[in-house]
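Q: What residues go here?
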């Protein structure tokens, strides 16, 4: 029905045409513009976010344990 080689040839020709056209420069400039915008937003990476989430979870566990210990000590004191 459809010849896969035909689509491969069309795709290759389009890639060459885009690489040799101003569209490639526009894409490069847009990427640079977006990178500058994101740099100004004070964002964190997913890895850093996940690390901080794990630190917060451990801190909450420790806080819960300390609260239980304080409650236990207060009960012993009375």
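A:
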């Amino acid at each position: 029905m459809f010849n896969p080689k035909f689509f491969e040839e069309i795709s290759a020709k389009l890639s060459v045409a885009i690489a040799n056209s101003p569209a490639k420069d526009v894409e490069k400039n847009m990427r640079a513009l977006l990178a500058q915008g994101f740099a100004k937003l004070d964002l964190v990476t997913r890895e850093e976010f996940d690390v901080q989430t794990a630190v917060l979870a451990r801190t909450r566990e420790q806080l819960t344990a300390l609260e239980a210990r304080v409650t236990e000590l207060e009960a012993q004191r009375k």
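A: Context that may help when evaluating the design: The two ends are 88 Å apart (CA to CA). The chain has two domains: 1-41, 44-78.
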